[in-house]
Structure prediction request, 214 residues.
Amino acid sequence: MHVEPLVVSDYQENTFLIWDEETMRGVVLDPGDEAPRIIAEIHRLGIKPEAILLTHGHSDHIGAVGGVKEEFDIPVYIGSGEEELLTDPTKNLSAAFGLNITSPPADHLLKDGDTLEIAGFTFNILATPGHSPASICYLSDKTIFCGDVVFMGSIGRTDLPGCNHDLLMQSLTEKILPLDDSVFLYPGHGPATTVGRERMTNPFLLQLQSTTYK
Prediction:
């Protein structure tokens, strides 16, 4: 698996191009903005994208979905319960900033425990609500694409409409902390890290480990 992050928009969102270097089959994860740039990079690299995978439906993660989908005629995947954010600027929070960002509707909905076989990869789906109503993470072997669930040294915001702090803490406790230390974390913003690094240094995960969170 080859992973290339493209940092897009004023929000410095990580759009990920993920592909097999032998077959060049791949996926686009969280195309947040700057569709022409993303499309140009896909063509430059010679990637054959087979799907758009979304960790959640906030506007800074979906702004380029329409352009990428139209260019490559590929399906959109998102967590079940998150699909309304794609077409509702109020729910995806763009309306609060005077914008009207929408995405084509989802073609496929994913739920906790699903296995997605695509582009030669196997992704295990982890439901991780809290930062958004039905956020999901995509785990493939020793790599997890975690959206805005956890960052290097921090976690996703929970002070926005549709967020729930208790749910995010539960998601971190049940889905992130049990992972092996060697698992790479590719978050929606900021640099990549590992579960082990965050377990040892992230103040939010340290607090979870020192208390019983219910």
Remarks:
- The mean pLDDT is 96.
